[in-house]
Amino acid sequence: MHRRLGLVGTYAVQSLILTIMMAVVLSVAVSWRMDAAIVDASGRSAALAVNSLIAHELEITPLDQLRSGEALARFNTDVRDNLFASGIDTIKIWNTDATLVYSSDGADVGRSFPEAADIREALSGQTVSQVVRKPDAENRVQFERIGTLVEVYSPLFVAGDDAAIGVFEIYQTYGPVQAAINETRLVIWTVVVAGAFLLYFTQLQIVRRAAARLKAAENETRFMNSRLEDSLRDLEEHSVGTLQALLSAVDAKDSYTARHSVSVTDYALAIGRRLQLTADEMLLIEQAGLLHDIGKIGVPESILLKPSKLTPEERASIEEHSDIGARILESIPFVRDLIPVVRYHHEWWDGSGYPEGLAGERIPRLARVLAVADAFDAMMSDRPYRVAMHLKDAREELLHCRGRQFDPECADALLEALDAGELWGVGAHASGTRDELIPLTVT
């Protein structure tokens, strides 16, 4: 148990570390993409505003006349009054030959930049935005004046022309863009980290519940083994080990079988006491109860655990388990007396059971006892294909099947035990625990 708790703790720590790493990597990756998107959106927005102003001015003054004179003075005034207040520091315009025909600071006008990749890309119709954190010769003056900046290249269009007549470049302050990026990063990190930790705690809760179910299953198996050892303590040590190994194999296929076998044994012993069975018979019914489903080792798990109605072929397969169990016991000399009980515990009083269709007194008496106990526990247990019945409904089913499926004497004995409150924790195994037992009486 302590080892299992230690494993859960180790898993929790390792899973937490992995969750944190995944949250950081995801947040960084998403933030990086969002940073680029925000810079691009900011550049496009500024480019639209600048292109609108320039296009309006070029309707009055052609591009090649902006280098001097009154047209240049008016253009500078419009740029200063309409754009610089919005955070734009410098505007440059190139013609289609990549020659600088206008610069708001007057620098390098007339120079040609035919190898500039950003200009060529803008001439092809693309707007290019980038953050400048380390200046070069072209933007050093602007960088020294405003610090980190956003540099945007965009095609220049005027009304009536489908093709770009040139390219303009914008240098704008990075502050507003950085503020938008920081706000977006905060949202991204909050959402990703919160989601990652929600997933972590949900996963941890699932693991803890699984560990608790495993512990309960181990306790039930340990209890069943203890009962088996008590009832067979006079037999050879290796023989007990053989039976326990077989039962463990069945439990590995269907953990319901272990819980079911213990409860069936309790109900069968209660019936036996009411029928005043001998001490030898009580020992046999206890051993048979623990071993009655051992033949399920030969039934495929896909059938045992199927959550829906069985096909006729699947039903035939599962009905073979009583014969399989009997054949297993035939190979173990010291349990030979259990063979008829295990083989015929699914026979019906009216002869419609299996494997041989025996009826009435032809069915061994202890098999009839076990049949009632087995059916009652099945009613009171959750199974993959249905939930457990209420105790009142199970009692009514016993009465309904008395004389048809069940030996009337055995059914009456169980009903009397229920009415007398002799059975503790009826159906308790269906909730996954046998530790909280309460006396139940039928109303």
Descriptive key words:
443 residues; alpha+beta; five-stranded antiparallel β-sheet; rod-shaped; disordered N terminus
Present the secondary structure layout.
Layout: H1 2-58, H2 69-82, E1 88-95, E2 100-103, H3 117-123, E3 128-132, H4 140-146, E4 149-156, E5 166-173, H5 175-231, H6 237-253, H7 256-274, H8 279-291, H9 301-304, H10 312-318, H11 321-330, H12 339-343, H13 365-379, H14 391-401, H15 408-419
Antiparallel strand pairs: 1-2, 1-5, 3-4, 4-5
Helix pairs in contact: 1-5, 5-6, 5-7, 5-8, 7-8, 7-13, 7-15, 8-13
Write structural notes for this entry:
By secondary structure, the protein is an alpha+beta fold. It contains 15 helices and 5 strands. The chain has helices at 2-58, 69-82, 117-123, 140-146, 175-231, 237-253, 256-274, 279-291, 301-304, 312-318, 321-330, 339-343, 365-379, 391-401, 408-419; strands at residues 88-95, 100-103, 128-132, 149-156, 166-173. Strands 2-1-5-4-3 form a 5-stranded antiparallel β-sheet. A hairpin with a 4-residue loop joins strand 1 (88-95) and strand 2 (100-103). The two termini are 40 Å apart. The relative contact order is 0.07.
